[in-house]
Protein backbone atom coordinates (compact mmCIF):
# COMPACT_ATOMS: atom_id res chain seq x y z
CA UNK A 1 0.00 0.00 0.00
CA UNK A 2 2.75 2.46 1.01
CA UNK A 3 4.55 1.68 -2.22
CA UNK A 4 1.40 2.46 -4.24
CA UNK A 5 1.01 5.79 -2.41
CA UNK A 6 4.71 6.46 -3.01
CA UNK A 7 4.28 5.75 -6.71
CA UNK A 8 1.23 8.05 -6.95
CA UNK A 9 3.11 10.84 -5.17
CA UNK A 10 6.08 10.46 -7.50
CA UNK A 11 3.83 10.43 -10.56
CA UNK A 12 2.01 13.58 -9.38
CA UNK A 13 5.27 15.43 -8.76
CA UNK A 14 6.71 14.29 -12.08
CA UNK A 15 3.67 15.60 -13.97
CA UNK A 16 3.20 18.75 -11.89
CA UNK A 17 6.57 19.73 -10.44
CA UNK A 18 6.56 22.82 -8.27
CA UNK A 19 7.62 25.60 -10.60
CA UNK A 20 10.60 27.25 -8.98
CA UNK A 21 11.51 30.90 -9.28
CA UNK A 22 14.37 31.30 -11.72
CA UNK A 23 17.59 32.59 -10.26
CA UNK A 24 19.28 35.81 -11.35
CA UNK A 25 20.53 39.13 -10.09
CA UNK A 26 18.25 40.68 -7.48
CA UNK A 27 18.37 44.01 -5.61
CA UNK A 28 19.92 42.20 -2.64
CA UNK A 29 22.34 40.07 -4.67
CA UNK A 30 23.54 41.48 -7.96
CA UNK A 31 26.20 38.80 -8.42
CA UNK A 32 23.81 35.84 -8.90
CA UNK A 33 24.18 34.73 -12.54
CA UNK A 34 21.17 34.71 -14.85
CA UNK A 35 19.62 31.29 -15.57
CA UNK A 36 21.09 29.33 -18.44
CA UNK A 37 18.98 29.53 -21.59
CA UNK A 38 18.44 26.25 -23.41
CA UNK A 39 17.35 25.80 -27.02
CA UNK A 40 15.90 22.54 -28.34
CA UNK A 41 16.72 21.30 -31.84
CA UNK A 42 13.63 19.48 -33.10
CA UNK A 43 10.03 19.59 -31.91
CA UNK A 44 10.87 16.17 -30.57
CA UNK A 45 8.77 13.74 -28.57
CA UNK A 46 11.56 13.35 -26.02
CA UNK A 47 11.65 17.14 -25.38
CA UNK A 48 9.14 17.28 -22.50
CA UNK A 49 10.63 14.37 -20.52
CA UNK A 50 14.23 15.04 -21.50
CA UNK A 51 14.34 18.75 -20.70
CA UNK A 52 11.12 20.78 -20.54
CA UNK A 53 9.61 19.17 -17.42
CA UNK A 54 12.95 18.84 -15.55
CA UNK A 55 13.70 22.51 -16.29
CA UNK A 56 10.56 23.62 -14.42
CA UNK A 57 12.03 22.61 -11.09
CA UNK A 58 15.56 23.83 -11.82
CA UNK A 59 16.12 27.43 -10.70
CA UNK A 60 19.00 27.95 -13.11
CA UNK A 61 17.40 26.69 -16.33
CA UNK A 62 15.02 28.36 -18.76
CA UNK A 63 13.91 26.61 -21.94
CA UNK A 64 14.13 29.63 -24.18
CA UNK A 65 13.76 28.38 -27.75
CA UNK A 66 12.79 25.48 -29.98
CA UNK A 67 13.59 24.98 -33.65
CA UNK A 68 11.85 22.72 -36.13
CA UNK A 69 12.31 22.30 -39.85
CA UNK A 70 8.89 23.84 -40.20
CA UNK A 71 8.19 27.15 -38.38
CA UNK A 72 4.52 26.34 -37.70
CA UNK A 73 5.52 23.10 -36.01
CA UNK A 74 8.06 24.93 -33.83
CA UNK A 75 5.47 27.59 -32.96
CA UNK A 76 2.88 24.99 -31.97
CA UNK A 77 5.45 23.18 -29.79
CA UNK A 78 6.58 26.47 -28.21
CA UNK A 79 2.97 27.47 -27.45
CA UNK A 80 2.19 24.07 -25.94
CA UNK A 81 5.24 24.07 -23.68
CA UNK A 82 5.51 27.76 -22.81
CA UNK A 83 8.74 28.34 -24.76
CA UNK A 84 9.45 31.98 -25.65
CA UNK A 85 11.00 31.61 -29.09
CA UNK A 86 10.29 29.37 -32.06
CA UNK A 87 12.53 29.05 -35.09
CA UNK A 88 11.87 27.55 -38.51
CA UNK A 89 15.29 25.96 -39.10
CA UNK A 90 17.94 24.67 -36.75
CA UNK A 91 20.68 27.14 -37.71
CA UNK A 92 18.45 30.08 -36.72
CA UNK A 93 18.37 28.77 -33.15
CA UNK A 94 22.14 28.39 -33.13
CA UNK A 95 22.41 32.00 -34.31
CA UNK A 96 20.40 33.22 -31.31
CA UNK A 97 23.00 34.83 -29.03
CA UNK A 98 20.75 34.30 -26.00
CA UNK A 99 20.98 30.48 -26.26
CA UNK A 100 23.67 29.13 -23.90
CA UNK A 101 23.01 25.40 -24.21
CA UNK A 102 21.61 23.38 -27.11
CA UNK A 103 19.61 20.19 -26.54
CA UNK A 104 20.11 18.07 -29.65
CA UNK A 105 16.97 15.91 -29.79
CA UNK A 106 17.24 15.05 -33.47
CA UNK A 107 17.39 11.55 -34.99
CA UNK A 108 20.72 9.80 -34.39
CA UNK A 109 22.04 10.44 -37.90
CA UNK A 110 21.75 14.21 -37.33
CA UNK A 111 23.48 14.28 -33.96
CA UNK A 112 26.95 14.72 -35.46
CA UNK A 113 26.11 17.58 -37.82
CA UNK A 114 24.00 19.65 -35.44
CA UNK A 115 26.11 19.10 -32.35
CA UNK A 116 29.18 20.17 -34.32
CA UNK A 117 27.33 23.22 -35.63
CA UNK A 118 26.13 24.07 -32.12
CA UNK A 119 29.68 23.81 -30.78
CA UNK A 120 30.91 25.92 -33.68
CA UNK A 121 28.33 28.53 -32.64
CA UNK A 122 29.84 28.52 -29.14
CA UNK A 123 27.01 26.63 -27.43
CA UNK A 124 27.33 23.88 -24.84
CA UNK A 125 25.45 20.75 -25.88
CA UNK A 126 23.23 18.13 -24.28
CA UNK A 127 23.22 15.55 -27.04
CA UNK A 128 20.70 12.71 -27.22
CA UNK A 129 21.89 9.13 -27.12
CA UNK A 130 23.51 7.37 -28.88
CA UNK A 131 26.13 10.04 -29.54
CA UNK A 132 26.13 9.67 -33.32
CA UNK A 133 26.26 6.92 -35.93
CA UNK A 134 29.89 5.90 -35.41
CA UNK A 135 32.69 5.98 -32.85
CA UNK A 136 34.80 8.05 -35.23
CA UNK A 137 32.14 10.76 -35.25
CA UNK A 138 31.77 10.50 -31.48
CA UNK A 139 35.48 11.07 -30.90
CA UNK A 140 35.49 14.03 -33.30
CA UNK A 141 32.55 15.61 -31.44
CA UNK A 142 34.23 15.37 -28.04
CA UNK A 143 37.57 16.52 -29.46
CA UNK A 144 35.88 19.58 -30.94
CA UNK A 145 34.06 20.39 -27.69
CA UNK A 146 37.38 20.17 -25.85
CA UNK A 147 39.04 22.40 -28.43
CA UNK A 148 36.27 24.99 -28.07
CA UNK A 149 36.29 24.76 -24.25
CA UNK A 150 32.61 23.79 -24.26
CA UNK A 151 30.69 21.12 -22.39
CA UNK A 152 29.26 18.20 -24.34
CA UNK A 153 27.18 15.63 -22.50
CA UNK A 154 25.48 12.60 -24.01
CA UNK A 155 22.05 12.02 -22.49
CA UNK A 156 22.72 8.63 -20.86
CA UNK A 157 20.30 9.88 -18.21
CA UNK A 158 19.89 6.55 -16.38
CA UNK A 159 23.49 6.86 -15.13
CA UNK A 160 22.56 9.81 -12.89
CA UNK A 161 19.97 8.03 -10.72
CA UNK A 162 20.94 7.05 -7.15
CA UNK A 163 19.41 3.56 -7.49
CA UNK A 164 21.82 2.62 -10.28
CA UNK A 165 24.73 3.99 -8.26
CA UNK A 166 23.61 1.86 -5.29
CA UNK A 167 23.49 -1.28 -7.46
CA UNK A 168 27.03 -0.60 -8.61
CA UNK A 169 28.21 0.12 -5.07
CA UNK A 170 26.92 -3.30 -3.95
CA UNK A 171 28.85 -5.03 -6.74
CA UNK A 172 31.97 -2.94 -6.11
CA UNK A 173 31.84 -3.61 -2.35
CA UNK A 174 32.78 -7.23 -3.08
CA UNK A 175 30.06 -8.64 -0.81
CA UNK A 176 29.00 -11.01 -3.61
CA UNK A 177 32.56 -11.86 -4.62
CA UNK A 178 33.96 -11.55 -8.10
CA UNK A 179 31.58 -10.60 -10.92
CA UNK A 180 31.24 -13.47 -13.41
CA UNK A 181 28.50 -12.43 -15.84
CA UNK A 182 26.03 -9.63 -16.47
CA UNK A 183 22.92 -9.76 -18.64
CA UNK A 184 21.26 -6.46 -19.57
CA UNK A 185 17.72 -6.54 -20.97
CA UNK A 186 15.93 -3.75 -22.83
CA UNK A 187 12.68 -4.98 -24.30
CA UNK A 188 9.39 -3.35 -25.24
CA UNK A 189 6.25 -4.80 -26.76
CA UNK A 190 5.19 -4.97 -30.38
CA UNK A 191 3.65 -1.69 -31.53
CA UNK A 192 5.59 0.40 -28.96
CA UNK A 193 7.09 2.21 -31.95
CA UNK A 194 5.12 2.82 -35.11
CA UNK A 195 6.42 1.39 -38.37
CA UNK A 196 7.46 4.85 -39.59
CA UNK A 197 9.44 5.66 -36.41
CA UNK A 198 12.91 7.15 -36.82
CA UNK A 199 14.18 4.02 -35.04
CA UNK A 200 13.30 1.90 -38.07
CA UNK A 201 15.06 4.11 -40.60
CA UNK A 202 18.61 3.00 -41.45
CA UNK A 203 19.51 6.37 -43.00
CA UNK A 204 18.44 8.17 -39.80
CA UNK A 205 20.68 5.97 -37.65
CA UNK A 206 17.94 3.52 -36.73
CA UNK A 207 18.14 0.05 -35.25
CA UNK A 208 17.19 -1.32 -31.90
CA UNK A 209 20.83 -1.71 -30.86
CA UNK A 210 21.40 1.98 -31.57
CA UNK A 211 18.25 2.99 -29.72
CA UNK A 212 17.90 0.83 -26.60
CA UNK A 213 21.07 -1.18 -27.07
CA UNK A 214 23.24 1.86 -26.43
CA UNK A 215 21.96 1.89 -22.85
CA UNK A 216 22.66 -1.83 -22.50
CA UNK A 217 26.24 -1.58 -23.73
CA UNK A 218 26.83 1.52 -21.66
CA UNK A 219 25.37 -0.28 -18.64
CA UNK A 220 27.42 -3.47 -18.95
CA UNK A 221 30.59 -1.39 -19.18
CA UNK A 222 29.55 0.70 -16.18
CA UNK A 223 28.50 -2.20 -13.95
CA UNK A 224 31.61 -4.27 -14.71
CA UNK A 225 34.01 -1.28 -14.71
CA UNK A 226 35.56 -2.90 -17.79
CA UNK A 227 35.64 -2.74 -21.55
CA UNK A 228 34.69 -5.87 -23.48
CA UNK A 229 37.56 -7.56 -25.28
CA UNK A 230 35.51 -9.33 -27.96
CA UNK A 231 32.00 -9.81 -29.30
CA UNK A 232 31.68 -13.59 -28.99
CA UNK A 233 28.34 -14.07 -30.74
CA UNK A 234 25.28 -12.21 -31.94
CA UNK A 235 21.85 -13.07 -33.22
CA UNK A 236 19.16 -10.74 -34.51
CA UNK A 237 15.68 -10.50 -35.95
CA UNK A 238 15.16 -7.85 -38.60
CA UNK A 239 12.32 -5.35 -38.52
CA UNK A 240 9.53 -6.16 -40.98
CA UNK A 241 7.10 -3.31 -41.62
CA UNK A 242 3.50 -4.15 -42.41
CA UNK A 243 2.94 -4.02 -46.16
CA UNK A 244 6.67 -3.87 -46.94
CA UNK A 245 7.27 -2.88 -50.56
CA UNK A 246 9.05 -5.53 -52.68
CA UNK A 247 12.30 -3.52 -52.63
CA UNK A 248 12.31 -3.06 -48.83
CA UNK A 249 15.86 -3.58 -47.49
CA UNK A 250 15.90 -5.62 -44.27
CA UNK A 251 18.82 -3.89 -42.54
CA UNK A 252 17.20 -2.77 -39.29
CA UNK A 253 17.46 -4.91 -36.17
CA UNK A 254 14.17 -5.22 -34.30
CA UNK A 255 15.83 -7.63 -31.86
CA UNK A 256 19.53 -7.96 -31.12
CA UNK A 257 21.28 -10.37 -28.77
CA UNK A 258 25.02 -10.28 -28.21
CA UNK A 259 27.55 -11.92 -25.91
CA UNK A 260 30.84 -10.31 -24.99
CA UNK A 261 34.09 -11.49 -23.45
CA UNK A 262 35.53 -9.26 -20.72
CA UNK A 263 38.92 -9.36 -19.02
CA UNK A 264 39.46 -11.94 -16.22
CA UNK A 265 37.15 -14.61 -17.68
CA UNK A 266 34.08 -12.46 -17.23
CA UNK A 267 31.27 -12.34 -19.78
CA UNK A 268 28.29 -10.15 -20.57
CA UNK A 269 25.20 -10.41 -22.70
CA UNK A 270 22.55 -8.03 -23.92
CA UNK A 271 19.04 -8.74 -25.14
CA UNK A 272 17.33 -5.85 -26.90
CA UNK A 273 13.91 -6.09 -28.48
CA UNK A 274 11.65 -3.36 -29.81
CA UNK A 275 8.76 -5.70 -30.58
CA UNK A 276 8.06 -8.46 -28.07
CA UNK A 277 5.12 -10.39 -29.51
CA UNK A 278 2.04 -10.84 -27.27
CA UNK A 279 2.01 -13.96 -25.08
CA UNK A 280 -0.08 -16.78 -26.59
CA UNK A 281 -0.62 -14.41 -29.49
CA UNK A 282 -2.95 -12.00 -27.63
CA UNK A 283 -1.74 -11.15 -24.07
CA UNK A 284 0.23 -7.87 -24.19
CA UNK A 285 3.69 -7.85 -22.59
CA UNK A 286 5.10 -5.31 -20.15
CA UNK A 287 8.37 -3.62 -21.10
CA UNK A 288 11.27 -5.57 -19.60
CA UNK A 289 14.27 -3.47 -18.68
CA UNK A 290 16.86 -4.38 -16.11
CA UNK A 291 19.97 -6.40 -15.49
CA UNK A 292 21.19 -9.46 -13.62
CA UNK A 293 24.73 -9.70 -12.28
CA UNK A 294 25.99 -13.19 -11.43
CA UNK A 295 28.85 -13.22 -8.94
CA UNK A 296 30.95 -15.87 -7.19
CA UNK A 297 28.86 -15.72 -4.03
CA UNK A 298 25.45 -14.58 -5.18
CA UNK A 299 23.56 -12.45 -7.64
CA UNK A 300 22.09 -8.96 -7.97
CA UNK A 301 19.10 -8.11 -10.09
CA UNK A 302 17.92 -4.60 -10.83
CA UNK A 303 14.52 -4.07 -12.41
CA UNK A 304 13.86 -0.92 -14.43
CA UNK A 305 17.25 0.74 -14.36
CA UNK A 306 16.25 3.18 -17.13
CA UNK A 307 13.12 4.70 -15.51
CA UNK A 308 13.75 3.85 -11.83
CA UNK A 309 11.78 6.83 -10.53
CA UNK A 310 8.53 5.14 -11.52
CA UNK A 311 9.38 1.84 -9.85
CA UNK A 312 12.45 -0.31 -9.39
CA UNK A 313 14.02 -2.86 -7.13
CA UNK A 314 17.51 -4.13 -6.46
CA UNK A 315 17.26 -7.74 -5.35
CA UNK A 316 20.41 -9.14 -3.75
CA UNK A 317 20.91 -12.85 -3.10
CA UNK A 318 24.00 -13.33 -1.00
CA UNK A 319 24.85 -17.06 -0.73
CA UNK A 320 26.13 -16.57 2.80
CA UNK A 321 23.84 -13.88 4.20
CA UNK A 322 20.53 -14.53 2.44
CA UNK A 323 18.33 -12.33 0.31
CA UNK A 324 17.20 -8.72 0.54
CA UNK A 325 15.54 -6.08 -1.61
CA UNK A 326 16.62 -2.47 -1.79
CA UNK A 327 14.93 0.54 -3.37
CA UNK A 328 16.60 3.93 -3.64
CA UNK A 329 14.30 6.73 -4.73
CA UNK A 330 16.37 9.33 -2.92
CA UNK A 331 20.11 8.99 -2.44
CA UNK A 332 22.44 10.70 -0.01
CA UNK A 333 23.18 13.44 -2.54
CA UNK A 334 21.02 15.97 -4.31
CA UNK A 335 17.51 15.16 -5.50
CA UNK A 336 13.98 14.33 -4.55
CA UNK A 337 12.19 10.97 -4.71
CA UNK A 338 10.27 12.15 -7.75
CA UNK A 339 13.24 13.38 -9.73
CA UNK A 340 13.36 11.60 -13.04
CA UNK A 341 16.74 10.46 -14.32
CA UNK A 342 16.52 13.45 -16.68
CA UNK A 343 16.19 15.84 -13.73
CA UNK A 344 19.28 14.32 -12.09
CA UNK A 345 21.07 14.64 -15.43
CA UNK A 346 20.09 18.31 -15.74
CA UNK A 347 21.35 19.00 -12.22
CA UNK A 348 24.74 17.51 -13.12
CA UNK A 349 24.95 19.39 -16.41
CA UNK A 350 24.17 22.73 -14.78
CA UNK A 351 26.64 22.02 -11.97
CA UNK A 352 29.30 21.37 -14.60
CA UNK A 353 28.43 24.55 -16.51
CA UNK A 354 28.49 26.60 -13.34
CA UNK A 355 31.88 25.26 -12.29
CA UNK A 356 30.47 23.11 -9.45
CA UNK A 357 31.51 19.45 -9.19
CA UNK A 358 28.67 17.27 -10.56
CA UNK A 359 27.85 14.19 -8.47
CA UNK A 360 28.00 12.07 -11.64
CA UNK A 361 29.59 12.71 -15.00
CA UNK A 362 30.18 10.74 -18.16
CA UNK A 363 33.55 10.87 -19.82
CA UNK A 364 34.37 11.12 -23.49
CA UNK A 365 35.67 7.52 -23.42
CA UNK A 366 32.34 6.39 -22.01
CA UNK A 367 30.58 7.69 -25.10
CA UNK A 368 33.29 6.62 -27.55
CA UNK A 369 33.56 3.07 -26.18
CA UNK A 370 29.79 2.64 -26.15
CA UNK A 371 29.70 3.56 -29.85
CA UNK A 372 32.73 1.33 -30.59
CA UNK A 373 30.97 -1.71 -29.18
CA UNK A 374 27.70 -0.89 -30.92
CA UNK A 375 29.63 -0.91 -34.19
CA UNK A 376 31.44 -4.14 -33.30
CA UNK A 377 28.13 -5.89 -32.59
CA UNK A 378 26.73 -4.62 -35.88
CA UNK A 379 29.89 -5.82 -37.66
CA UNK A 380 29.61 -9.30 -36.12
CA UNK A 381 25.90 -9.51 -36.95
CA UNK A 382 26.56 -8.64 -40.59
CA UNK A 383 24.17 -5.67 -40.47
CA UNK A 384 27.02 -3.16 -40.47
CA UNK A 385 27.36 0.30 -38.93
CA UNK A 386 24.83 3.02 -39.69
CA UNK A 387 26.11 5.35 -42.44
CA UNK A 388 28.62 8.05 -41.52
CA UNK A 389 27.13 11.52 -41.51
CA UNK A 390 27.57 13.33 -44.84
CA UNK A 391 28.65 16.34 -42.81
CA UNK A 392 31.40 14.25 -41.23
CA UNK A 393 32.52 12.87 -44.59
CA UNK A 394 32.59 16.38 -46.08
CA UNK A 395 34.78 17.58 -43.21
CA UNK A 396 37.27 14.78 -43.97
CA UNK A 397 37.26 15.27 -47.76
N1 LIG B 1 16.83 10.05 -23.47
C1 LIG B 1 15.75 9.32 -23.72
O1 LIG B 1 15.13 8.74 -22.84
C2 LIG B 1 15.26 9.24 -25.09
C3 LIG B 1 16.08 9.63 -26.11
N2 LIG B 1 15.65 9.62 -27.37
C4 LIG B 1 16.57 10.07 -28.40
O2 LIG B 1 16.14 11.36 -28.81
C5 LIG B 1 16.26 11.51 -30.21
C6 LIG B 1 14.90 11.87 -30.79
O3 LIG B 1 13.98 10.85 -30.50
P1 LIG B 1 12.39 11.12 -30.50
O4 LIG B 1 12.09 12.30 -29.67
O5 LIG B 1 11.74 9.85 -30.18
O6 LIG B 1 12.19 11.44 -32.01
P2 LIG B 1 11.10 12.17 -32.92
O7 LIG B 1 10.51 11.18 -33.82
O8 LIG B 1 10.20 13.01 -32.09
O9 LIG B 1 12.06 13.05 -33.81
C7 LIG B 1 12.82 14.09 -33.28
C8 LIG B 1 12.89 15.23 -34.24
O10 LIG B 1 13.68 14.87 -35.36
C9 LIG B 1 13.45 15.84 -36.34
N3 LIG B 1 13.84 15.41 -37.65
C10 LIG B 1 14.79 15.99 -38.39
N4 LIG B 1 14.96 15.36 -39.55
C11 LIG B 1 14.10 14.36 -39.56
C12 LIG B 1 13.77 13.36 -40.50
N5 LIG B 1 14.42 13.28 -41.66
N6 LIG B 1 12.81 12.49 -40.19
C13 LIG B 1 12.16 12.55 -39.01
N7 LIG B 1 12.43 13.49 -38.07
C14 LIG B 1 13.38 14.37 -38.35
C15 LIG B 1 12.01 16.24 -36.19
O11 LIG B 1 12.19 17.62 -36.09
P3 LIG B 1 11.28 18.77 -36.64
O12 LIG B 1 10.52 19.09 -35.42
O13 LIG B 1 12.28 19.72 -37.09
O14 LIG B 1 10.41 18.25 -37.73
C16 LIG B 1 11.57 15.66 -34.86
O15 LIG B 1 11.00 16.62 -34.03
C17 LIG B 1 16.86 10.21 -30.71
O16 LIG B 1 18.24 10.35 -30.79
C18 LIG B 1 16.52 9.20 -29.63
O17 LIG B 1 17.48 8.17 -29.53
C19 LIG B 1 14.37 9.28 -27.64
C20 LIG B 1 13.50 8.88 -26.67
C21 LIG B 1 13.91 8.74 -25.31
O1 LIG C 1 16.07 6.49 -25.06
C1 LIG C 1 15.12 5.76 -25.06
O2 LIG C 1 14.62 5.32 -23.90
C2 LIG C 1 13.40 4.66 -23.80
C3 LIG C 1 13.07 3.86 -25.02
O3 LIG C 1 11.76 3.43 -24.96
C4 LIG C 1 13.30 4.66 -26.26
O4 LIG C 1 13.21 3.82 -27.37
C5 LIG C 1 14.65 5.23 -26.32
O5 LIG C 1 14.82 6.07 -27.42
Automatic annotation (TrEMBL):
Official protein name in the record: D-xylose 1-dehydrogenase (NADP(+), D-xylono-1,5-lactone-forming)
Molecular function terms, GO-annotated: D-xylose 1-dehydrogenase (NADP+) activity; nucleotide binding
Keyword Transmembrane: no
Enzyme Commission number, as recorded: 1.1.1.179
Pfam families membership: GFO_IDH_MocA, GFO_IDH_MocA_C3
Organism of provenance: Hypholoma sublateritium (strain FD-334 SS-4)
Ion transport among keywords: no
Similarity annotation: Belongs to the Gfo/Idh/MocA family.
Stored PANTHER family: OXIDOREDUCTASES, TRANS-1,2-DIHYDROBENZENE-1,2-DIOL DEHYDROGENASE
EC class name: oxidoreductase
Residue ranges of coiled coil: none
All copies of domain GFO/IDH/MocA-like oxidoreductase, residue ranges: 165-278
Entry keywords, A to Z: Oxidoreductase
Catalytic activity: D-xylose + NADP(+) = D-xylono-1,5-lactone + NADPH + H(+)
Record-annotated Gfo/Idh/MocA-like oxidoreductase N-terminal domain positions: 36-152
Positions of transmembrane segments: none
